[in-house]
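Entry 14. Ran structure prediction on the chain below.
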Amino acid sequence: MSFFKQFYHFMLEGARAHAKWEIDVSNTIMRDRKRLAILGLLVIPIIIGGIAFADDIAGALPNVLGSKKAYCPAFYSNTIFFASIGVGLCAGLITGCIGAGGGFIIAPALMSAGVKGILAVGTDLFHIFAKAIMGSVLHRKLGNISVSLALVFLIGSIGGATAGGYINRTLYDLNPVLSDAFITSIYVFMLGFLGFYALTDCLKSRKPATKSAAESGGKSAPAGESMTGLARKLQSVNIPPMLHFDHGVVPGGRKISAIFLVLSGAFVGLAAAIMGVGGGFLTFPIFVYVLGVSSATTVGTDIFQIIFTAGYAGLGQYAVYGFIFYTLAIGMLLGSLIGIQVGSLVTKVVPGTTIRGFYATAVLAGFVNRVFALPAKLGKMNVISITDKLGKTLEQIGIYLFFVVIAIFAIWVIATFLMNIKTLKGEGVHS
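Output, structure tokens:
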């Protein structure tokens, strides 16, 4: 049981680190008029073209991208762009308010709206890449990047992303339903694990503060300059070539075999390409807890790898094969930028226990959504015996529950923000 608890804190630290990156990127874009102007130039043609030529675009686009058939949402209309803004807005509210990665709901939300799983993954990757490029804060972190670690890690992540993209595309070519079932199953495991442990953590946080503080302080704090036992063991393994790093953190620096960097990168790239989440939520805990890299070096390297891993996976493994819907990606980018700003302000006036509760609820809503969608997909593949009517009913229940919960959360966050505008202005908040 302790292993699963440690794994939960491991994943939660990664989600928090990725959320911090998203908030930094959002702030960079929203505070720069030139970047906002570029975003506006991207949005205007989409709105005009979507309204004027929606039916033509929906019919022609699948044949243009990758010379494939029907990679677009099954029921595309000129309102899908505005729906994608809503998805991005909700994901941004979760990221900004909870600080633990709202990106986990994007793929389930898109799939619930009728987008094929592989298209949801590819589009999410492109959305992350576009956000990273537009709001890159890399220039402020260059001093914290170990170039040798970053380059060797990218060798592995590019290999892993290639494998992940190939797996998703192969499954789709075999059977689109199999592809959706595979991606859905991955999210069922991930969201279920995070959701149930987050709920347990939330309930424990409501107990006397001394116990909660002791529990939260022991596991979830970043290792910083200290190292875990696993990291010490890995750094003691002398398999050339050895990479040296953290000279400014520890006298004499540290060293680790390149093979562990390549393997870690491969795992991150594989997860990123299969789930469409950029890999940032895995890089931070792997570097700090597994490889023993300092937090400062990890932050810079994580930003570096997100840009290249998401870019390569999104463009090299999905875009060239027609698995990205750019209208959705730009809509999600626009919505998430707004949502993150509002959500991060709400944290100033909301108790931490409430935020934990909403995080658990949001993640579990995504879990329920994917669990209820799975029987219909398994039934279509004759894996289980279920009528089409029952499968569709379960899927609809999951969709309604998911969007109702996320909508309630979004309304609550926005209402809390509006009711506390005077308070926030009085504190001089500029986030």
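Confidence is low (pLDDT under 50) at residues 56-75, 209-224. Will compare against last week's run tomorrow.
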